[in-house]
Write a structure and sequence with these properties.
Elements (H helix, E strand, L loop, with lengths): L3 E10 L3 E4 L11 E4 L3 E10 L3 E12 L2 E13 L2 E7 L3 E2 L8 E11 L4 E12 L6
Parallel strand pairs: 3-10
Antiparallel strand pairs: 1-2, 1-4, 4-7, 4-8, 5-6, 5-9, 9-10
Length: about 130
């Protein structure tokens, strides 16, 4: 078994349910679509092949290849085994047509010493909702 195995990555959208995110490098696939201003949280499920004192999740977002922000969350220390499920705090997506479009998202997992465990690449489309009828 590997030191770290990501089993599931999901977006939980307020009033929209769970969106499964395909594992692996999904930059070539159609982006996941979420409405502007939605409140979303990320769900992570993983298993460990060794004890890790601090598992860290870092997500970097880019717009047209230019980094626009990075957040770093220390998930905690975990013993060998699992699966472990973690839900990150919710955040509101930006509002307004200027913020709509496709964002690249890179999720990196490291241990407390900064050694890489795994990395995921995805695209998310923040969409302006169609007019109500």
């Amino acid at each position: 078994m590997e030191d770290f195995e990501l089993l599931d990555l999901s977006l939980y959208v307020e009033d929209g349910g769970r969106l499964a995110v395909p594992l692996g490098d999904a930059r070539a696939e159609a982006p996941l679509e979420v409405p502007e201003g939605a409140v979303v949280s990320v769900g992570l499920t993983f298993r460990l092949g060794r004890n890790i004192d601090a598992v860290v999740f870092e997500d970097t977002r880019d717009w047209d290849g230019a980094p626009i922000g990075t957040s770093r969350t220390v998930l905690g220390g975990f013993r060998c085994g699992g699966p472990y499920e973690v839900r990150l705090p919710p955040e509101r997506l930006p509002v307004g047509r200027a913020h709509c479009g496709v964002y690249g998202v890179t999720g990196r997992f490291t241990d407390g010493a900064g050694r890489p465990l795994t990395e995921e690449h995805h695209r998310i489309r923040v969409a302006h909702p169609p007019p109500a009828r």
